[in-house]
């Protein structure tokens, strides 16, 4: 393949991703996947053979690449061989891995309180950001990209624009969270982004949010392996334990499939603990009255 054609192939791949409407972050991930495949091949990917594709998958397994990354690479290649370089026969040689399903880590209500109270200063920025994540079940990127105009105090709603899957949704705005956000607003006077970065033109980054969350967890002496996303898991689990219908939780989280939301039934410990064991029913029957 000529040297001039390789950049042209990459450009076409970029254009195909734009046509599909992939987010910049996803495009970066796709480019990384194609780079890994091309490096393994040692030549341009459009001339890859089924045997080379098989060898690439075998190499990933031998290197101990986890199922999520393994499947991600195949998703990228599936897109490349369907959109950029149509070769349907290549997709028949892709062997997706079954990922181990892990139940999410969940914080207790008391642990959430400790983390929020330990939010680093100065000011209320991270205390407000953590409270938004837990109070509305937001993802870290949704917290950082929240705008002042997304706070609807008249209808007591938070508007989430272009969340995962490029979908808008609304979540409840609690009176306590509204009061905290008003205190924070009076302190910072943000314009545009609710949580502006240092230059105030861009929002704070998810890396900054993660770092601040880690500091708060250290101060709060949280021993679990957690991240800001754990606040979202805890939001869903605590709602389920309080009796909220799982379909309502699905809408609040912005899940396309109910199956995704049902994972929280496995960690709703209060709900599990309240179930009477059939052994107890059996013992009670044997004892009987009188």
TrEMBL record:
Keywords per UniProt: DNA integration, DNA recombination, DNA-binding
CDD domains: INT_IntI_C
Domain Core-binding (CB): 4-85
One of the GO BP terms on file: DNA integration
UniProt domain Tyr recombinase: residue ranges: 102-277
One Pfam family in the UniProt entry: Phage_integrase
Record bears the keyword Cytoplasm: no
InterPro entries named in the record: CB, DNA_brk_join_enz, Integrase-like_cat_sf, Integrase_catalytic, Integrase_recombinase_N, Integrase_SAM-like_N, Tyrosine_recombinase_XerCD
Record-stated family: Belongs to the 'phage' integrase family.
Protein name from the UniProt record: Tyr recombinase domain-containing protein
One MF annotation (Gene Ontology) recorded for this entry: DNA binding
Residue spans crossing the bilayer: none
């Amino acid at each position: 393949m000529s040297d001039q054609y390789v950049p042209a192939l990459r450009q076409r791949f970029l254009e195909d991703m734009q046509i599909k409407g992939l987010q910049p972050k996803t495009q970066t991930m796709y480019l990384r996947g194609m780079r890994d495949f091309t490096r393994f091949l040692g030549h341009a990917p459009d001339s890859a053979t089924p045997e080379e594709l098989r060898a690439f998958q075998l190499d990933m397994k031998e290197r101990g690449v986890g199922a999520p990354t393994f499947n991600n690479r195949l998703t990228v290649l599936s897109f490349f061989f369907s959109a950029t370089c149509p070769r349907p026969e290549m997709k028949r040689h892709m062997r997706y891995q079954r990922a181990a399903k892990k139940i999410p880590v969940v914080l207790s209500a008391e642990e959430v309180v400790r983390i929020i109270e330990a939010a680093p200063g100065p000011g209320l920025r991270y205390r407000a950001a953590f409270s938004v994540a837990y109070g509305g079940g937001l993802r870290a990127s949704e917290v950082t990209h929240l705008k002042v105009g997304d706070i609807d105090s008249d209808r007591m709603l938070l508007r989430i624009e272009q969340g995962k899957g490029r979908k808008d949704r609304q979540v409840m705005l609690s009176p306590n969270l509204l009061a905290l956000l008003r205190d924070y607003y009076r302190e910072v006077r943000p314009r545009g982004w609710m949580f502006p970065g240092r230059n105030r033109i861009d929002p704070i980054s998810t890396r900054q949010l993660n770092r601040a969350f880690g500091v708060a967890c250290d101060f709060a002496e949280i021993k679990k392996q957690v991240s800001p996303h754990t606040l979202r898991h805890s939001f869903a689990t605590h709602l389920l334990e309080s009796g909220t219908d799982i379909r309502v939780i699905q809408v609040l989280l912005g899940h396309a499939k109910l199956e995704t939301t049902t994972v929280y039934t496995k960690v709703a410990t209060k709900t599990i603990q309240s179930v009477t064991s059939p052994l107890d029913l059996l013992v009670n029957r044997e004892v009987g009255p009188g």
